[in-house]
Amino acid sequence: MKREKLYITPKEGKNCVFTIVHESGEALASHFCSNLGYARSDLESGRPERQKEWKKRFGNYEVLIIGDDDLTDDELIKRNHELFEANPKEE
Question: Phi/psi of residue 37, each to 5°?
């Protein structure tokens, strides 16, 4: 069974906004953190309400830091743009 993947990006940085993004390119949440070491907890593992919501939506998912596998920042951004273009917001 395929596990959905959620990515934390960027893979390094201090005092910046970290984002958790579904492999489709959908941005799910963001949080200003002092460093990547806190990002996972702030975005997912310390947020049971998000875990519950995402388990319901994605089933058995895993959280990776961008760069942990073959998916690149550029590809994730491309997927985000494609998702946005396929689902434009109504004004």
Answer: -60, -30
Total domains present in the chain: 1
User: ∠80-81-87 over CA atoms, to 5°?
Assistant: 90
Cα 83 from Cα 43, distance rounded (Å): 22
pTM comes to 0.89
Structural domain containing residue 77: 4-86
- Give the model's confidence band at 58: pLDDT under 50 very low, under 70 low, under 90 confident, else very high: very high
Q: Is 91 inside any structural domain?
A: no
Rounded to the nearest angstrom, the gap between the alpha carbon of residue 44 and the centroid of all alpha carbons in its chain is 9
Of the candidates 35, 23, 27, 26, the one whose C-alpha atom is nearest the C-alpha of residue 62 is 23
**Phi, psi of 72, deg, nearest 5:** -105, 165
Render pLDDT for 17-31 as a digit per residue (tens, 0 to 9): 999 999 999 999 999
Beta strands in the chain, from DSSP E residues, in sequence order: 4-9, 14-22, 27-35, 61-65
